[in-house]
Amino acid sequence: MQEVMPATGVFSLLWLLIALPLAGAAILLFSGRKTNKWGPYLGVFTVFVDAIIAIWMLIAMMGNSAEQRTFSQNEFSWMFAGNLKVDMAFQLDQLSMVFVLLITVVGTLIHIYSLGYMSHDPDKRKFFGYLNLFVAAMLLLVLANNYLLLYVGWEGVGLASFLLISFWQIKPTAAAAGKKAFIINRVGDVGLSLAIMVMFVTFGSVGFDEVFGSTSQASEGTLTAIGLLLLLAAAGKSAQFPLQAWLLDAMEGPTPVSALIHAATMVTAGVYLITRSNAIFDAAAWAATAVVVVGVITMFMGAIIGSAKDDIKKSLAGSTMSQIGYMVLAAGLGPVGYVFAIFHLLTHGVFKAGLFLGAGSVMHGMNDNVNMRRYGALRTAMMVTYATFIIGTLSIMGIPPFSGFWSKDSIIHAAFESNTLVGILTIIAAAITGFYMTRMAAMTFFGKARWEDGVHPHESPKVMTIPLIILAIGSTFMGIALLFWGNIETWLEPVTGFEEKHIAIPEWALITITLILVLAGAAYGWIQYARREVPLVAPRGNWLTRAARQDLYGDAVNNTLVVQPSFWLSRFLVWFDGSWIDGFVNGSAAFFGGLSARLRPYQSGFIRSYALSMVGGAVLVVLALVLVRLS
Amino acid sequence: MNTVNTGEAIVFWVCAVLSVLGAVGLITSRKAVHSALWMALTMINLAVLYIANNAPFLGMVQVIVYTGAVMMLFLFVIMVVGVDSSDSLIETIKGQRFLAMVLGLLLIVIMVWGLGSSLAGLPAVGLGEANRIDGGNVQGIAHLIFTDYLIVFEVTSALLITAAMGAMVLAHREHWQPKPTQAQLSVARFKSEEHPGNRPNPGIYARHNAVDTPALLPDGTPTDASIPGALRARGEIAPVDINDGRAIEEADSL
Amino acid sequence: MNPSNYVILSALLFGIGALGVLVRRNAIVVFMSVELMLNAANLAFVAFARMNGNLDGQVVAFFVMVVAAAEVVVGLAIIVQIFRSRRSASIDEPNLLKY
């Protein structure tokens, strides 16, 4: 059982992890043009210091025994309302540690990359401010020790995502994309707030320790409800079905944003939520099944969409959707899969960030053109980008010995441990992954050059390529490092639990089958796009290709199910307000006006008429008196 | 006195009928003066009824104050306004008369019914004892006025003073110019278009010297100025001929 | 015969007075009808004083007479004023307070 240690030594700096980037954001956003020169460097500096502290904390944590790796720091009592007692308190355990490392280290690399990528942008100070705000909110999310504080971080990253997607507000598509992301996220947030409410009603508290300790006291129905609501929240944040429509539009934001938020960190918050709430999902089998179903569906959706997009960033976004589907699937499998979900999350964070930054580097060299049909034969023009991108591609496809192989195959193995059908589906999806990643690499770096006039691709400056190299190194070695040296299974086991079940197929056979299918997919992609001529205008394609280009009609479905009804509702309300409510109000005004117009002539000015009405009143009074008295 | 003895009963019936008659006459007379006279009849009868009810003081006060002073006041004002003025009996406000009849009758019926049923069996204590206590009705009333109802008395006297002052203020006519002297009146008369002197007397003829025969001007034409205004207004002017003065010759020619 | 007959008579006179107020157009006749109503009330007071056996009713009737006298004085003065300016004693004349 975990012993909660007080935050001493380096752990007393827990609050600083959040406070530094938050202060950085405040300074950068409120200081105005004065800080334009050195603002970006401040932004990089805060996250860099955070990374140093995080690594230090990791070393200290590794020095402790497995039961003594949970550190808690209570800043102050935040809410004290009736039975609800919520503190601003942070908790660092093994799970949050790996997240903190991912956020700060990858964040630092992306901040450094942005120095180069956004160097010509006049608003780069604001950009770094928003990025710092995001880092602070994400850290708050993973360090919170209760659901309410997690919700604050949850909302914060949603806000930062909105601000960053629509960073170039002038572009209507960017503004619309930011709005779409925020609204769809909000739907998920409703799930989280409802889950918190149900938790409070059921358990009397929203803190992790209290909730996870008392799951035995709640009925399975309640726990299933909480689980489904948490799944809704995770689906919104991690762009899972049915709330996946925003992720592809979110590529309107600058590439570092896509790398940090929509590949490595924010979209993984959903997986964090599910993994953190493992006690609830372990007790509610139906909710866990729902998680697996959502994961499987999204895994395929993302892969299919990514295979048909010509925009390099949108293709990578489809890939992200698919890989997070893998993670969600693994998390839904229960104790067999939690560890591997996080493992894949970490490796994916590194190689996806590398892929996105590489894409940004390619765009930088091609005058910000994103159309892959206009790329081709870039491997000689941008060698470092090419090398790092290929390493990332091999990693995501799951080719040994790169990191993706270890994490994805663990998930496939865990899938087979639970359900053979799910296992088979994961292998098929891996094959599709091989196809679309090879397609991407082939269209970009191989084949003939299909560049537009006036485009001279060149390698990006060092400030952009060095983070690429570091991430590529991570993509190569992180899998081996985490699995064998870091013992990720035993590291995370105290938090999530870990099981291993026996399956009929031996492990080496599983790996071989997967590899063969992945290489088959890759070969098909190679033949289609490296050997054959890539047309400049996308050919019509079959029905699946066309559907995939329309995001598998995700937008159309949302439009019909949500947007149009909202329009009808508001039009109805306008009509109702105009004719019924206004009618009622105006009608009563007209009624009184008419009534008074009819009554007015009674004031004739004749004294005798008034005397008549007085006598009439007197008759009534006397009548009433007599009747009351005599009856 | 629980019941009423026959003498009082006769007095009651006679006076009741007369007072109702007077009331009806009041509201139906065309001329205001007639209404005032009917009113006086009602009031005298009421005074008699007061006395019959063992309230001699009040009966006397009714005659002196009400009939004597108030009605006289009414008659003076009628004289100021115009004794001859009479109301036309055509009702100008639509539905007023009908509704007034209905409501009035309704009022009377309900009140009579209500009072009749509630007072029917009520025994009357009578004022024998009350009048005897202080040695008479007047003394009894005086006792009450100057002890229990003293404040009311004082306030009412203030009211009376205020009313008198109010009447004076209202009836006052401010003179903005000095009264015209006789000289000024004379000058004004001669300046006006009207004939400044006396009007001519009516014509005296052999056969007529009535007020409605006009006099003749020096040139022989009849003038209407000699005829009183009322007749002139009614157009009752007897025709006259210059030859009316030659009656003796006519008589001679016959 | 019942002492309450006086009260019935008073009610009757009151009603007739009310009718007079409603039906007549001459201001002075209307005023006289109001006086008739006051007199009817006085009669009721006196009758009740007899029925109750104390003189309070008569005292009140006395004061009513005083107040009625004061009221007649002021009211008639007003009517005279109106007549001086408008040359008419009809109460239908001053109807300017209409809608």
From TrEMBL, chain A:
Biological process according to GO: ATP synthesis coupled electron transport; electron transport coupled proton transport
GO molecular function: NADH dehydrogenase (ubiquinone) activity; NADH dehydrogenase activity
Assigned keywords, A-Z: Membrane, Transmembrane, Transmembrane helix
Domain NADH-Ubiquinone oxidoreductase (complex I) chain 5 N-terminal positions: 78-128
Keyword set includes Membrane: yes
InterPro entries, A to Z: NADHpl_OxRdtase_5_subgr, ND/Mrp_TM, NU5C-like, Proton_antipo_N
Record flagged with keyword Transmembrane: yes
Location of the protein in the cell: Membrane
Membrane protein topology class: Multi-pass membrane protein
Residue span, NADH:quinone oxidoreductase/Mrp antiporter transmembrane domain: 144-433
Record's GO cellular component terms: membrane
Spans traversing the lipid bilayer: 12-30, 42-62, 95-115, 127-144, 150-170, 182-203, 255-274, 280-304, 324-343, 378-400, 420-442, 463-488, 508-527, 610-630
Principal subcellular localization: membrane
Name of this protein: Unannotated protein
Organism listed in the record: freshwater metagenome
UniProtKB/TrEMBL annotation, chain B:
Spans through the membrane: 6-28, 35-52, 64-86, 98-116, 149-171
GO molecular function, one term: NADH dehydrogenase (ubiquinone) activity
This protein's UniProt keywords: Membrane, Transmembrane, Transmembrane helix
PANTHER family in alphabetical order: NADH-QUINONE OXIDOREDUCTASE SUBUNIT J, NADH-UBIQUINONE OXIDOREDUCTASE CHAIN 6
UniProt name for this protein: Unannotated protein
Originating organism: freshwater metagenome
UniProtKB/TrEMBL annotation, chain C:
Any GO BP: ATP synthesis coupled electron transport
Any single GO CC term annotated in Swiss-Prot or TrEMBL for this entry: NADH dehydrogenase complex
Membrane-spanning residues: 6-23, 28-48, 60-83
Subcellular location: Membrane
Primary location group: membrane
Keyword field contains Chloroplast: no
Pfam families per the UniProt record, alphabetical: Oxidored_q2
Annotated keywords: Membrane, NAD, Translocase, Transmembrane, Transmembrane helix, Transport
Name of this chain's protein: Unannotated protein
Species, as recorded: freshwater metagenome
Higher taxonomy: unclassified sequences, metagenomes, ecological metagenomes
